[in-house]
Write a structure and sequence with these properties.
By secondary structure, the protein is an alpha/beta fold. The chain has helices at residues 15-30, 46-52, 58-67, 78-82, 84-87, 93-96, 98-105, 147-155, 161-167, 190-207, 221-234, 247-252, 268-282, 321-333, 337-352, 373-383, and strands spanning 2-9, 35-41, 69-72, 109-116, 136-143, 211-215, 242-246, 262-266, 291-293, 300-303. The protein has 16 helices and ten strands. Strand 9 and strand 10 (300-303) form a beta hairpin.
Length: 384
């Protein structure tokens, strides 16, 4: 049995409940490939603030970077954001935790798969007839660095202070609300874009799927640049079907998912918004699984996009399936293929047999098959 250490962030809100189920499933499934996982707790988020006075304790950050693989339970909750977060906005964990981890680890590629099965069409918030018999696979790959989320922090130092004031560029935590002008810098670098698109096209080739590039090239300079580079790289992959799609029309297609079947390349900001919308079209944010990967070093963070569900924390109601499926992505990344497949088949079987968490449950469903967080994890384990 090979031993593998993975940094664990239990997270805020309902995160610890969902991660308990996901970690147990991942640990059992990994043994199918002869891997024994040891999760090393690295507290981050508001749950860490009470003990360390910081939502990103240095000890946790350093350990996570050292291990290079993070299983991340999500951070942030409304109560702390509106109390401590108002007094100390620099401690809000969504920016304090996530952005430094992505930057330090070089996590350029954010994979967010959305899979529509015809047999599970009743779960999706789309008309069943829009899902063909063969199903739909949307592989969203969000460009996780640069863009508008990093622009001010990365480039303000290049701008003289008097010009910063004149054009209103600020770090988010310094915004007061009484300014006459506030601006954001958004940018892309050629080297990063080339690396990103080559990885995305290679993935599309591997999956035997078309690549759809999302942009706003009709208005914005950086997306005209994005489109030009996507077209340039497409010529290196003549066997991959390629098209460009404006973000406005892509948003309109979320609820006719077959029209976005393929690998979908999108910028940091657009990818954040569109993939969340795709998860809602799929049925629930609680089903979203996600990984962020450095294509050069293999460093990675595995974080479901489902949020922390703080309003139901401690009530055994949160849907852990997104975390469990994210665990499958993590296992596949470290070479645990049998375990990953076992998890994916188990989740599919659970849903096909009619078991539901509260966010997926409707009046048409069997009330005896309504499961809480812990029971959902146990049911997945029983299939593995």
């Amino acid at each position: 049995m090979t031993h593998k250490q993975i940094a664990l962030v239990d997270g805020d809100g309902s995160g610890p409940e969902m991660m308990a189920a996901a970690c147990r499933v991942a640990s059992v499934a990994a043994k199918k490939d002869g891997i024994e996982i040891e999760f090393i707790k690295t507290p981050m988020g508001w749950n860490a603030y009470s003990e360390y006075g910081d939502t990103l304790p240095k000890k946790s950050f350093d350990k996570a970077i050292e291990l290079g693989i993070i299983f991340f339970g999500g951070v942030g909750d409304f109560e702390h954001d509106s109390t401590i977060g108002v007094e100390k906005p620099e401690m809000k964990p969504e920016a304090r935790v996530l952005l430094p981890l992505r930057k330090q680890m070089g996590l350029l590629l954010n994979f967010r798969p959305m899979i529509y099965y015809k047999a599970l069409a009743s779960l999706a918030n789309v008309k069943p007839e829009t899902i063909p018999e063969e199903g739909i696979r949307q592989n969203w790959i969000r460009y996780l660095l640069e863009d508008s989320y990093f622009g001010n922090a990365d480039l303000m130092k290049e701008i003289p202070e008097n010009i910063q004031k004149k054009i209103g560029v600020k770090i988010k935590k310094d915004v007061l609300g009484d300014e006459a002008l506030v601006s954001d810098i958004a940018y892309y670098k050629r080297g990063s874009l080339l690396k990103y698109f080559r990885a995305a096209f290679a993935y599309a080739r591997q999956q035997k799927l078309p690549l759809i590039s999302i942009d706003k090239a009709n208005v914005l300079a950086r997306y005209d640049y994005w489109r030009k580079i996507s077209i340039e790289v497409s010529k290196e992959f003549p066997d991959v079907e390629f098209s460009s799609q404006l973000v406005d029309s892509a948003a309109a297609l979320l609820f006719t998912p077959a029209k976005l079947n393929g690998v979908i390349a999108c910028g940091n900001e657009h990818g954040d918004i569109l993939s969340d919308g795709a998860a809602s079209a799929l049925g629930s944010m609680g089903m979203m699984c996600s990984s962020a990967v450095n294509p050069d070093t293999g460093a990675a963070m595995f974080e479901s996009g489902a949020g922390t569900a703080p309003t139901i924390a401690g009530q055994d109601k949160a849907n852990p399936l997104g975390r469990i499926l994210t665990g499958a992505m993590m296992l596949r990344h470290i070479g645990v293929e049998k375990g990953a497949v076992a998890i994916e088949k188990a989740v599919n079987r659970l849903l096909t047999e009619g078991y539901r968490t509260g966010d997926l449950y409707t009046k048409a469903d069997d009330s005896t098959k309504l499961l809480g967080t812990k029971a959902t994890g146990e049911k997945v384990l029983s299939y593995i």
